[in-house]
Amino acid sequence: MAEIPRGPKEIHSMLVRLTEELMKSISAWDNVAFIGVRNGGELIARGLVKLLEEKIAKQIPLGVLDIALYRDDLTRRKFYPEVRSTDIPFVIDHKDIILVDDVLYTGRSVRAAIDHIVDLGRPGRIYLLVLFDRGGRELPIQADFVGMKINLPDEQVIKLEASADKENIPGVIISEVKR
Amino acid sequence: MNWPHKDLIAIQDLTSEEIHTILDMSKSFKEISKRDIKKVPALRGKTVVLLFYEASTRTRLSFELAAKRLSADTMALSASGSSFAKGETIMDAALNIMAMSPDCIVIRYPYAGLPKKLAQELPCSIINAGDGTHEHPSQALLDMYSMQEHFGKLDGLHVAIVGDILHSRVARSNIYGLKKVGAHVTVVAPKTFLPVGVETWGVNIATAFDPVVSEADVIMMLRVQKERIHEQYFSGEREYAYFYGLNKKRVDKMKPDAIIMHPGPMNRGVEITHDAADGSRSIILNQVENGVAVRMTLLYLSLGGNVNVD
User: Fold this and answer.
1) Chain-wide mean pLDDT for chain A?
2) What CATH number does residue B62 fall under?
């Protein structure tokens, strides 16, 4: 399996590829909106929306989701996930939502994100786009668009590192986590 | 983040960082109340008992809404409809409630100290919703949230708290909290409404309202407890209104961006007139709105994580 891309340049070219894939699959963009899951997904969604808007010369709505309150392990953790705001500046009803997260692993975050979205309205459909799919699913969830499939040992986490201004393409850090 | 508290009994138990954590988080929780579906599953399966041994509308409703919007199950019990009226002691009542395994008890009690006692005796979270003249921490937190929302900061604000300081747990909690976050407090009251030892609280003390009105960023009016008039704390409502009421004349003297607060319930015409309560400077209804968000944060922090592990 190929080396995991780390730098903003490599991430940028992944986003370009994902943009092309999206353009191929989706023909009508009038009804499409992006929702990024904080924090990594938000960064990816911003990058993709920027690239797409250049191509189709149209504004694409972008929202941000905080899934802390929808987690299924809330009362089992020692540490509290910090609660930040959800900010969806458009009406979700009937929209085609592209849900964006940085890493797809157990599928539990995506489950939480979908639950959160349907509490906010009834979208026409939801696509799932992820930058990295690292396998290890615990729920029957698959992505429609994948930047790259990767293999990582269980004790490692992969995270996006935001650049100082959120407009720029982030880099990637991989770190060990104590379990 | 690690939240070290099982209970919330007093503002005095919190550090300034913890106060800021609560205020920051409340911003996120406020957004939930603006949605069509005002509910998140965070506290699904948790049980919150609201035990109110003293009259309350705002606080009780606010805690109940907060719990429900986090998907917790709530049960409210008041003194009149409970076996307390039959002579059961409060500790017996509490132990019986505990036997039904609630995760949190929100308690209001007419005398100071009971919430702390319950927190020591019971394994569930205890949130103090007002105990005698001791503390009312959730009110102070929602007041600080409302000030911060308006001014963007708390540090350096000058807050005047006006009225019955002696009997007010709201005043005490606010004073403890505001001092921790770097605000200045002036208490304004007739001498009969100033508690013994107030000079050790680290606040400015004024017995005349007019010089303070033009200086403060926040004027927080306290309810005149009409039932106490007969105890000769002051000679009459009209005299009190004349010296300590917030009326149009005083509102006109306030700083340009100063605001008016009141924890409710208001006695219109006594400590506050219609002009002041309903005017553009009043954030009294924002306080109520913010109360739900702040109490959601408190329930989330007390119940959300497994604080007893380790």
Assistant:
1) 87
2) 3.40.50.1370
- Indicate the average pLDDT of chain B: 92
Q: Which residues of A touch B306 (CB under 8 A)?
A: 75-78
- Provide the phi-psi class of B121: left if phi over 0, else alpha when psi is between -120 and 50, else beta: alpha
Average pLDDT over residues B136-160: 98
| Cβ-defined contact of B37 to A87 (cutoff 8 Å) | no
B2 versus B101: the higher-pLDDT residue is B101
Question: What residues in B contact A70, CB-CB < 8 Å?
Answer: 40-42
- Could you tell me if B231 lies within 8 Å of chain A, comparing CB atoms? no
Tell me whether residues A82 and B1 touch, CB distance under 8 A: yes
B window 160-199, beta carbon within 8 A of A = none
Alpha helices, DSSP H, located in chain B: 16-32, 58-69, 90-98, 114-121, 137-151, 169-180, 210-213, 237-244, 248-253, 274-278, 284-303
Stated pTM of the model: 0.87
What are the φ and ψ backbone dihedral angles of B112, each rounded to 5 degrees?
-70, 145
Do B265 and B144 share a domain, yes or no? Answer: yes
Domain count, chain B: 2
pLDDT of residue A178: 60
Taking an 8 Å cut-off on Cβ atoms, the answer to whether B42 and A74 are in contact is yes
- Which residue segment(s) compose the domain that B177 sits in? 137-283
Same domain, B62 and B72: yes
Instruction: Look at A121 and B36 and tell me if their CB atoms are within 8 Å.
Output: yes
What residues in B contact A93, CB-CB < 8 Å?
none
CATH code of A8-70+83-176, in short, is 3.40.50.2020
